[in-house]
Structure prediction request, 724 residues.
Amino acid sequence: MSTQFNTQFNTQSFSSLEQVLAPDSIAIVGASNDPTKRGYKAMMGLIDGGYQGDIYPVNPKADTILGKPAYASVNLIPEGVHMALICTPASTIPSLIKECGDVGVKGAIILASGFGEVDEVGARLEQEVLQAAQNAGVRIIGPNTSGLFNLHKKVNLLALDNVSAGDIGIISQSGNMLLSLALEAQSNGHIGFSTYVGPGNQTDVGFADYLAYLGSDKHTGVATFYVEGFKDGRAFLDEAKVTSQLKPVVVYKSGSTEAGQKAASSHTGALAGSYQMTVDLLQQAGVSVVAHSDEILPVAEGLGLMQHASGKRVAVLADGGGQATIASDRISEAGLELAELETATRLALSQILFPQASLVNPIDVAGSTDAAPGLLSKCMEILVADKNVDMVFLVGMFGGYGIRFAKELIEEELQCADEMIALAKKTDKPLIIDSLYAHIKPEPLEKLRQAGLPVYASIEHAVKIMSALGERGAYLKNNQHQARKAPLTINQACADTLANAKSQGRDLFEYEAKNLLSAYGLEVAKEIIVRDESELERAFAEFGDIPLVMKVVSKDILHKSDAGGVKLNLVGKDALYTARESILASCLAYKVDADIEGVLITPMARKGTEVIIGMSQDPIFGPVLMFGLGGIFVEILKDVSFRAIPLSRYDAISMIDQIKASKVFDGVRGELPLDKDALVDLLLIVSAIVENHPDISELDLNPVIAYDNGYAIVDARIIVSQEK
Prediction:
């Protein structure tokens, strides 16, 4: 694993965090001789854990605490202190932070609650703490944090028992989730942790800072996060793009952000802020997202051991048909593939397995290994040599043959384990073992675990890990040389149009939105705005007897169809007159005081496949682009994908491929394939437009009709930010 230093990280910030999270000296403010107090437990955690740095208990009412001289205040400690753990009530914190700053303390961990998570009074106190910290040059962990440990430094401020040092760094907004993971690791027996932090309110240090620290920490192989809510999601995404190139990043995101979103004014706004959006954006940044809490440690362990796979093609080796079928089902559901084995591979397997063995992936040895479990490692070696195989998945009862059939087989299983270990050292293809006997930890499986081969008791967990390995491999491969599209030169006329609309407190009219798109080179159909009846003649003369569309133009009517403001398939002059009268009447009935500028007339687009391209300014993640099935069903079917702006070409391609309806683009029932390249370019240009014009609050192109050659933007809506 690469330990290259993150050159994009602020070195001063990293230095201060390193001294806080890996301190050589610690002051315990509120230290106590009372075993029920947190200040006592923190002292005991350090002493019992063998912490080698200096410990300074601070308590004005004690001379000594647990055998160490106590100080009446932080500023009486004679030597410099890297970090202070503050165990006192919320009201004492601002003055204590000032004291810490006076004596050069680098950072403070604030356990107390009663801040912004409680009420407005607490929020004001929290701001006071932040101001004091900034004035004093002290980094703040918390407040309302569960604490931290750094097991390689022997810093255990949680006094948590039976946690082993290892390479998994944990940042968790839930102290109970940490406890759950610690107990799970204890049961596993082969998983250890580097650093844990409870971020609390993130008044100062946030998720992005912790990710940067873990990314640069030589003891951390996998950065793992339990997240209830991001405060600055964009900063986390930016850091994840850097750290995920160096080591795996795993996130479990609980809940969704929908409740925190503003009332949506467009289709895109209605769909943004969802849990799916968060997952898409994290994956875009190279993060492995787990959907269930019991997947957190298995996936972190698996990624730490195997890093990534070069592809998603899996060879399944099973000693039972049932498990082979289950594994195949889960592999298909996870978006992985059953590898198509080479003829030479099947021939080699046939020479060592019974004639009744199934040699079409999944491979079922059909009893061949009941008396000769050593054959499994030979089968694995054959499968690893197949160029169509990216991962090998052994499922069944390995490790239990000596228990199930005959004790004499244990030695053969141990020899087989040695051969698997040797094979793992020779190949970069992940070898994953799932065993019925994993829970009872027989010696052959323990030998594999001690050598760094992953062993699981759940097919579902194993498949999730293989999925994460395949996704990480694809991300590293596709993003390594995949630069995003260069920003477009800013069109000043477009900037002026947006500024004018903003000064008038309105959004762009549809024709203005389409003019903006056209100015940046996008294909937009010709259209005419008609402000009074006399101008209908001009429109008819321009377009003639072809099917036309008429739409209302009004700053007060955003959803035109809802107001009866759209008429389709209008042919002939009379139809135009009738449609205009109907639209005006319907829209004024819908909103009696609507300011109607006129109607917009344009040719009907020919039939094709409707998609939507939209953008919204998410309050947590910033500008986000959406792609999906278009038309009136977008909010019903919600077959959409999201990416953070700016996009790379790989981002644009992947968001099209991600939607469930993506097979439509390849052509179905004799239809020609759709022009995916044109849609990719459209997504990239929309991304660049949003970069150029931050006053665009929301954008909807719905529908865009995709054809076998090009596309047609049927409707365009641009909402202008009214913030000063």
